[in-house]
């Protein structure tokens, strides 16, 4: 027991010493933490002080800039620059009047006006040879109410005012005014656009936008129904025109069709022009495999359709006389009379006399000039003008005379060019060929140069040449797999169709076949599709013109209607 008591007595002092050591360590730790905290506080205070100094400097610079801008505005007024009436009224602080713009636009415009004013002042000083001086402060009446700090600040006395500008400087309109006016107009347009946008947004939120969307959907549906109805009507006409006609070719033409072997080589006479000089017609080349190569049965089918004779394609007196047309003469005259002589007091013979007499009409050598850009590959002007009769489409020639000539015996009136820069600069000397507008009683008074018209013949509305043209056109497209070439709006294929130019060309071929033309030379027809007067203008995909180019070359190679030559690739 004595030993245990001794152990307890010695343990008490040791425990107290350990506690003192722990307390001293804790105190040291607390002191170190406080020192670090105070150091951090010191750093923060230093940063805050530096920030305050920087802000004070920036504020001082800002006030100096504002004062300088006010001084510039004041000096701009002192130089007596006349302000355009389109500028808004400025208050003493140089701000636009309330209501002119939105808040942001007003602030931006004021800054722009100040910059333009400074530029205008510097420009006038440079023009007058003045030495740049410190800008004077604005007059007292324009300073406005400043803050208390600004009133306490002392400013140096103003320097003497700059010399007044010369009279020439007064009269010249500052460039800054024009810029300011333009900027203000732009800001007004932007504000108006934003106002409209907000109004549209309000309408949408109020339900008007939904009604508008429904109306747009209904209009689109209506357009679709209209297109589909038109497509159904065109398809019905197309099917009717694809029914073959029952006709027999003369023996001479039938032999040409049966003997055709597929070659498109031009006849020998095409290598000599009407002037007697050497000429180069369109010859076969490597591209024919793509554009002018049909299976022989298809080629002969097309040639048979091309060889058909249409004595009344161009309406003439013989078409309405029974001794030449039999009972059909009354049908043709009836259609002719109802279309052009409604209410006319003329007799039948007087009406018939308004058409040409093909038994007497002779035009000699003929040429037809199309719009294709291949005429620019050769200077055909002199050669074209060497023909007795030249037919053209009504487009300008004055800049292209060396390529297409200027002589014009007949003119195809194309309404689309009437109001354009390519409007015709010539008038026909003999005929207006198949005009879109045919005057009452075929009176030439309202036609170009008062020349009589040549018109298409019709038998109770039927035109057999259109039926044949439709069939040979689709024979070519099917052989070339081009029946869907025109696209498919609303999910239905658009029907490709020949151009109006091929029908007009076919009319001149009929005049060649009838002996009115001794020879027909063709210029400006190609597969490229560009116009010689505007090479960026191309024929629509709805008109696969490679087919028409093949038909023309087929007529040249076979001579089935007489001497016909094609020039230009």
UniProtKB/TrEMBL annotation:
Highest taxon listed in the record's lineage: Eukaryota
Record field: compositional bias (Basic and acidic residues): 17-28, 119-128, 170-180, 201-217
Organism: Chloropicon roscoffensis
Compartments reported by the entry: Golgi apparatus, Golgi stack membrane
Reaction catalyzed: a beta-D-galactoside + CMP-N-acetyl-beta-neuraminate = an N-acetyl-alpha-neuraminyl-(2->6)-beta-D-galactosyl derivative + CMP + H(+)
Recorded family membership: Belongs to the glycosyltransferase 29 family.
Protein's name according to its UniProt entry: beta-galactoside alpha-(2,6)-sialyltransferase
Topology within the bilayer: Single-pass type II membrane protein
GO MF terms, alphabetically ordered: beta-galactoside alpha-2,6-sialyltransferase activity
Principal cellular location given in the protein's record: Golgi
Composition bias type Pro residues, residue spans: 155-166
